[in-house]
Amino acid sequence: MSPFLLLLLFILPFAKPDSDPVQDFCIPNTGNSSPVELTKLSTYPCKNPLNVTGGDFVFSGLRSSGNFSPQTGFAGLSVNPVLFPGLNTLGMSFARADFQPGGVNPPHYHPRATESALVLSGRVYSGFVDSTGRVYAKVIEKGEVMVFPRGMIHFQMNVGESTAEIYGSFNSENPGVVRIPGMIFGSGIRDKVLEKAFGLSEEELERLKKRFGPK
């Protein structure tokens, strides 16, 4: 057998794509009108298609912004199959993000999804950092889209004079989000580790923990 064929036999098992749905759609049936739980999503049977209506595929919860954070001037609303059961098995989710002038979506990443961000209004400085530490950033305006590769740290800041709005979509029902400041200074990592890693004094670390730790 040629070296090329041996290489293919080694690579192909690890390159298998995600499984495709075996039906057109699957509206979760919780059985008792209780809310959908993300961790139990795969255990729910599908609602009988005869009982499914057009309303099961419509979500109206993004008509207005969420509550703005007084610290960041950012408001985000994430939509997955828990809020919108019609997304179940479709391999996608989405979000609305609003920014007050100067508002910022702090550095974060999505471990399970690539994100595309469409600017609906305003001017937003957007970018991501690759695994070599290089920054790819640009001010994007209404009608422009920027893509953030899966697992890459990215950020957004409103650099306009009015409120900005972005619509984001993800190629996963559960993209996950890891917010860098909170995960580092609010997750319970030992103080000595953080002090040494970031060159912080006890007082400086305490201030960061108060700001980014659990409220």
Structure description:
With 215 residues, the chain is of the alpha+beta class. 16% of the residues lie in helices and 27% in strands. It contains 4 helices and 10 strands. The protein has helices at 3-11, 180-185, 191-198, 202-212; strands at residues 74-79, 93-99, 104-109, 115-121, 123-129, 135-141, 145-148, 153-158, 164-170, 178-179. The strands form 2 sheets. Strands 1-2-9-4-7 form a 5-stranded antiparallel β-sheet, with no helix packed on it. Strands 6-5-8-3-10 form a 5-stranded antiparallel β-sheet. The protein is globular.
In short:
The protein is α+β, with helices and mostly antiparallel strands and 215 residues long. The protein has helices spanning 3-11, 180-185, 191-198, 202-212, and strands at residues 74-79, 93-99, 104-109, 115-121, 123-129, 135-141, 145-148, 153-158, 164-170, 178-179.
Features:
215 residues; disordered N terminus
Widest β-sheet, arrangement of strands: 1-2-9-4-7
Structural class: alpha+beta
What is the count of DSSP helices, taking H or I runs of 4+ residues? 4
The outline comes out as globular
Write the layout of secondary structure elements.
Elements: H1 3-11, E1 74-79, E2 93-99, E3 104-109, E4 115-121, E5 123-129, E6 135-141, E7 145-148, E8 153-158, E9 164-170, E10 178-179, H2 180-185, H3 191-198, H4 202-212
